[in-house]
Amino acid sequence: MNDNPPLLVVDAVRKTYRLPGGGRLTAADKVSFTVPGGGSLGIVGESGSGKSTVARMLVGLIRPDAGTVAVDGRERGQARRAGRRGRLARAREIQMVFQDPYLSLDPRLTSGQCLRTALRLHDHPAVDARVTELLDQVGLGARESDARPHELSGGQRQRLAIARALAVDPRILVLDEAVAALDVSIQAQILQLLGEVRQDTGVALVFVSHDLAVVRHITDETMVMRRGTVVEQGPTERVLGAPEHDYTRRLLASVPHEGWDPADARQPVTS
Ligand SMILES: Nc1ncnc2c1ncn2[C@@H]1O[C@H](COP(=O)(O)OP(=O)(O)OP(=O)(O)O)[C@@H](O)[C@H]1O
Q: Alpha helix (H) ranges present in 202-235?
């Protein structure tokens, strides 16, 4: 249990996309949740349920059509009018880690240069010392510091992406399928790293994943999405251990386990 007051407050956000044929698709509707300081929330749901859309609205990559996202009582939509300093300050509040670090890391920069660039952008006062600290924090050594993304393993690249996100001491880290592309043992290492980082820095985590086992492992609270709406939310143990909603039960039934019958997973979850 985390009794800290809400740090992140998401209130009734909605996002619709224009479709090529002229129609509109509501990817998120009336989505509301809070995350306390140092807390962790998992957002689960099948593919297309709107998880990434919500994650992107948190960091400001897409703008909600309605509703608000606030950190520490300050609405984030205002950043546009706040100038460079204001935008950087807002970026420091929430940072994001994506599934594929290859796409978000500059292929020309070594790990050390990548972190230096992020720190300089935010006018950090002690760049070199912070680079060493960050590499150490995510378990990368001198060799990795001098390596470019293609010279790193998938797990090391994700460690670097996490270090870059942490560089500016964010209050909240949003991870969108951040371990989905890694094999199981590397996944476990990254999840352990995230747990340690949360413990050491007090950063709150919003963890978007289709993998219920991963969410169970790393989050205190879970929110279940279906077709853009929230069907259930609460403590992870309760939501995934004793789900109240039939959709959550069907999601859980579709996870392979001992004695699992693939026919169960073929029942359409979307019905
Ligand atoms: N830029 C876009 N334009 C039009 N439709 C979009 C756009 N981005 C997402 N969508 C649609 O919005 C819905 C929600 O997508 P979203 O990526 O948020 O779901 P998701 O739960 O994260 O899925 P996945 O786990 O497969 O990434 C889907 O139907 C998707 O096709």
A: 212-218
